[in-house]
Amino acid sequence: MDIRRKPVLSKWLIHLWFIVFSLFCIIPFLYVISISFSKESDIAIYGYQLIPRTITTFAYEYLLESPKALINSYLVSITVTVLGTALSLIITAKLAYVLSRKDFHGSKPMSFFVFFTLLFSGGLVPSYILIKNYMHIDDTMLSLIFPYVIMPWHVLLMKGFLSDIPLALIESAKIDGAGEWKIFYRIVLPISKPAIATLTLFIAFIYWNDWYMALLYIDNQNLVPLQFMLYRIMNNIQFLSTSLQTGNISIDLSQMPNETARMAIAILAAGPILFVFPFFQKYFVKGLTVGAVKG
C-alpha cells in the first residue's frame, strides 16, 4: 500500500505546485484588469486591490477619445505583424534549412557568420543610415518590417530543429525524383510545424510589441502602430502628472487617469496576442524543446 500511495501523493503534490504557480502567474494580470477598471482616487487612498471598490471605464474612455486613430493604429500593427511574421518565417526557414544540411560544405562558416551577428550588431547609426539614405523606406510600413526580418537567434533555433531531420529521409525523396523545392515544401515544412509555430509566436511578439522603429522612422500619423500610439499617450499622462506635482497646471489629480490608464494600455496592447495564443498553444508547447533532444 505504501508503494502505491507514494506515486499518487507525488502526483498530487506536483499538481498542487503547478496550481499555485499558475495562480502566481494569473493574479498579476487580474490586478492589471482590476486597476484598469478602478477609480484613480480609490488607488490613491486604498492602493491596488484585486476587486475594485468602484468599477469605472474612465481610463478606457480617456484612451478611446480618438477611436479612429486607435483603430488605424490597430490596423497598422496587425498588418505589420502579419506581413513581417510571414516574410521573416519564409526567409528564416529557408536559411535554416540550408545551414542544417549536413551535405552542404558551407554550413559551418555560414552558421558561424550568423552566430557572429548574434554577438555583434551593426549598431543604430548604420541601420538608420541604411534604411533612410540608401533604402529610402523611412516613413513607410517597410521601415517597421525590414529591421526584424532576419533574427540570428531565430535562424539558429530553426536550424537546431531541422538538423534532427534524418538525411536518409531527404535522400530517399531525391531518389523518388523530388527536387530541393519539393523536399523543402512537401517534407521539411510539414515536419517542422512545432518549430514554425514557436517561431511564429516569437516573431509576432517582436513585431506587435515594437514601438522603437516607429519612433525612429515614422512621421506619418496614419502609419503609427498601436504600441507607439500607446507609448505617446503614456508619455503625455506622465507629463501631465509631473506638471500637476510641480504646480505648473491646475487639474484635479483624482480625475487624471494615471495608474488606471497605464493598466488599460497594457490590456489594449496584450488583448490580440492573448486571443491568438490558444490557437498555437499545442505546437508551441512542442516547440519549446526544439533542437533539445537528439534522436
Automatic annotation (TrEMBL):
GO terms for biological process: transmembrane transport. CDD domains: TM_PBP2. It is a multi-pass membrane protein. This is Sugar ABC transporter permease. The chain crosses the membrane at residues 12-33, 74-99, 111-131, 143-162, 183-208, 261-280. Residues 74-280 form the ABC transmembrane type-1 domain. Keywords: Cell membrane, Membrane, Transmembrane, Transmembrane helix, Transport. The keyword Transferase does not apply. PANTHER family: ABC TRANSPORTER PERMEASE PROTEIN MG189-RELATED-RELATED, POLYGALACTURONAN_RHAMNOGALACTURONAN TRANSPORT SYSTEM PERMEASE PROTEIN YTCP. Its main location: membrane. InterPro entries: MetI-like, MetI-like_sf. It comes from Cohnella abietis. Belongs to the binding-protein-dependent transport system permease family. It is found in: Cell membrane. One of its GO terms (cellular component) is plasma membrane.
